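Severity: low
Component: inverse-folding endpoint
Summary: output formatting inconsistent between runs
Steps to reproduce: submit the following structure tokens with default settings.
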């Protein structure tokens, strides 16, 4: 537009009658490369509305014409009859809130990251609500959180305090949840939503998940599909009780309210204090689930997961190999096996600590973080030294937030333990949870890690476990503020993790919680990977890894080859090679050809980990659909890819279709080579050693499945000139 025209336009606007100008809605656009979330302020009533959420709108003139839509962060007590985002009780006993727009600001905080804050205020009470949006342009991820503050004379009680409220409008809504149980995590189940509410929530206190993971997918109009359709993927960054509410109203509008579970968690907020909610993180795709997951995975590596762009260590763990039954000699022998296998690290699991109550089983010892003298007479120092001499790193299991009732810590510091003073104790896995709302306990937990690293600077890694949900919920520290415990406990955990990260910024750690109880993106700011499940049967793992992959990149998921399932070693290793490869098996019990195969597989994994761990993932064939599964990883510039194809329980006489690949350049030529072959065997794949165009591979496909149960193939795909 030339300057004269612009001037003319400004003059015309200035000539408009003042009241007409005031009627113009203010528009707040939050956008990424592919998604727009648009809010409008209604000048008549001063309230904020969500006008649009969907594929990016690029024409300003269209955006101007968008209808207002539905009110943004709905409150309780006014004219809305459905679930509110916020409900407060003022100190005069009035339970209502009416939020009006005050101001907003948008700024670029880093290249490709834009932050928008919208300030809302009640017109009768000095209560402020700030809605924060952080938009990651390239990865199409939007993070939302809310800050609530007030200047009333006495505390205000918050009953509901959502991180986010999003509105959607469609004919039909299909919700996919990822529910299950210990050793049976993230089973995907899709259901159509009808009028009313569906909630996904947990009340476990110390972890987000045991029965239902803190993430969901919501498909619009059609069921979720990998490569087409509109879908929203959402998750909450909170390592405690969470709640997602999906409510379809009388006009078939859907609202999604996400945040901390308000159950038994009303929070009294002092004047001037700010309540900051956890982050709700979502993406919206019009090209199906696959793209949405790749956006999530890229975003996690680039912005959220600890050391998201750094390499990972392969390892040998001793948990399933020995359980509690080990001593110094046995561990040193296992370290030799780790070195022989070619992995980077040996990880010592549970069972190394406690003297008055040695940790010889899971019934005692948690809390007493000193080496058991009878098992490890020379302490961890000897083990760290032995590992170093063998050219591998040493990692250690801890469960620092917990205490066994049979422990010296419990005897000394019952006041640090969450328990009801006047009732019998109830134990989960024979243990109890320490009260992390208490700063003294935070110091103690931080001290466990700090003391170990001070005494043994050679410890290169921690597996941080958390096996028990909170039982007998009562904090000796919080006294008359018991309803703060669920929230303050999790905040206490973050204080500890933040201190550790500050002092030991380069320390990799695995997040574990009795299998996959903890897999949320706030915790993953402090952890390089998580343990998806205690179930390491590879057939089950195909499903489990498939489920988590909707939100998490391969490098964040630890996957170990164990003896669970007893399938051929190749099948077990190929499944684990799709994520962060590790072993938890006695190498000395392997046959020579099995060991040779594993050594080769470790080498291949290390060589290809820039593709597997840092590339884009394409889910090609779902284990939920048939008797096979296939996943492919492609480097970001598409010059290299790795295909994993599995036959689980093929049917007799099944007619096998070629598998179409994805994520390649149509006009490039690729050579295919089957790798991870058992010694002495030849590839039976017709495509092995041949060269095809990307176009062919993606449209015609290759025969990748067979009729042999629990068999697998790994194919390296390399661009050739
Ligand atoms: C939990 C973990 C396991 C193992 C045991 C040790 O169950 O998920 O991997 O570390 O604790 O007790």
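Observed output (run 2 of 3):
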């Amino acid at each position: 537009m030339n300057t004269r025209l612009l001037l003319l336009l400004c003059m015309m606007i200035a000539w408009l009658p003042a009241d007409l100008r005031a009627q113009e809605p203010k528009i707040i656009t939050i956008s990424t490369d592919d998604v727009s979330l648009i809010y409008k302020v209604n000048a008549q009533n001063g309230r904020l509305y969500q006008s649009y959420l969907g594929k990016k709108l690029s024409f300003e003139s269209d955006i101007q014409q968008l209808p207002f839509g539905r009110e943004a962060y709905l409150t309780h007590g006014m004219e809305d009859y459905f679930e509110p985002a916020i409900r407060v009780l003022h100190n005069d006993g009035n339970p209502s809130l009416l939020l009006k727009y005050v101001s907003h600001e948008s700024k670029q905080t880093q290249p490709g990251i834009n932050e928008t804050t919208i300030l809302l205020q009640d017109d009768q009470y000095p209560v402020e609500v700030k809605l924060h949006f952080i938009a990651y342009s390239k990865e199409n991820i939007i993070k939302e959180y809310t800050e609530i503050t007030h200047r009333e004379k006495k505390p205000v009680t918050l009953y509901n305090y959502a991180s986010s409220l999003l509105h959607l409008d469609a004919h039909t809504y299909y919700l996919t949840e990822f529910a299950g149980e210990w050793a049976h995590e993230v089973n995907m189940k899709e259901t159509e939503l009808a009028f009313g509410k569906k909630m996904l929530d947990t009340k476990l206190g110390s972890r987000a998940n045991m029965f239902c993971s803190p993430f969901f997918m919501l498909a619009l109009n059609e069921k979720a599909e990998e490569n087409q359709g509109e879908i929203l993927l959402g998750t909450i960054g909170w390592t405690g009780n969470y709640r997602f509410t999906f409510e379809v109203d009388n006009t078939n509008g859907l609202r999604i309210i996400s945040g901390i579970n308000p159950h038994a968690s009303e929070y009294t907020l002092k004047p001037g204090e700010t309540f900051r909610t956890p982050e709700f993180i979502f993406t919206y795709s019009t090209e199906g689930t696959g793209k949405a997951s790749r956006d999530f995975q890229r975003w996690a590596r680039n912005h959220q997961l600890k050391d998201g762009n750094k390499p990972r260590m392969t390892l040998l763990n001793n948990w399933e190999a020995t359980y509690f039954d080990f001593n110094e000699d046995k561990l040193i022998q296992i370290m030799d096996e780790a070195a022989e296998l070619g992995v980077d690290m040996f990880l010592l699991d549970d069972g190394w600590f406690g003297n008055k109550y040695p940790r010889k089983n899971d019934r005692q010892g948690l809390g007493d973080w000193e080496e058991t003298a009878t098992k490890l007479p020379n302490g961890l120092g000897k083990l760290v030294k032995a590992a170093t001499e063998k050219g591998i790193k040493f990692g250690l299991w801890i469960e620092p937030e917990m205490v066994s009732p049979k422990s010296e810590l419990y005897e000394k510091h019952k006041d640090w333990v969450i328990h009801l003073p006047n009732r019998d104790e109830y134990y989960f896995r024979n243990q109890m949870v320490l009260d992390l709302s208490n700063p003294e306990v935070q110091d103690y937990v931080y001290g466990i890690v700090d003391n170990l690293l001070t005494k043994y600077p050679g410890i290169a890694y921690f597996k941080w476990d958390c096996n028990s949900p909170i039982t007998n919920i009562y904090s000796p520290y919080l006294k008359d503020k018991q309803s703060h415990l669920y929230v303050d406990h999790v905040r206490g955990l973050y204080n500890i993790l933040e201190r550790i990260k500050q002092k030991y910024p380069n320390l990799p750690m695995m997040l574990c919680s009795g299998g996959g109880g903890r897999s949320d993106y706030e915790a993953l700011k402090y952890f390089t990977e998580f343990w998806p499940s205690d179930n390491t049967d590879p057939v089950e793992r195909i499903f489990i890894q498939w489920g988590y992959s909707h939100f998490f990149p391969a490098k964040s998921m630890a996957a170990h080859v164990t003896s669970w399932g007893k399938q051929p070693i190749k099948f077990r290793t190929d499944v684990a090679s799709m994520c962060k490869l590790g072993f938890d098996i006695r190498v000395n019990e392997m046959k020579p050809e099995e060991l040779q195969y594993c050594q080769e597989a470790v080498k291949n994994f290390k060589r290809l980990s820039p593709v597997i761990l840092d590339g884009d993932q394409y889910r090609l064939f779902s284990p939920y659909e048939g008797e096979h599964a296939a996943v492919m990883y492609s480097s970001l510039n598409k010059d290299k890819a790795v295909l994993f194809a599995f036959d689980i329980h093929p049917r007799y006489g099944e007619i096998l279709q070629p598998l179409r690949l994805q994520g390649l350049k149509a006009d490039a030529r690729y050579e295919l080579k089957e790798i991870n072959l058992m010694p002495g065997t030849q590839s039976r794949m017709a495509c092995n050693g041949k060269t095809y165009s990307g176009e062919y591979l993606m449209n015609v496909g290759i025969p990748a499945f067979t009729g042999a149960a629990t068999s697998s193939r790994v194919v390296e795909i390399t661009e050739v000139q």
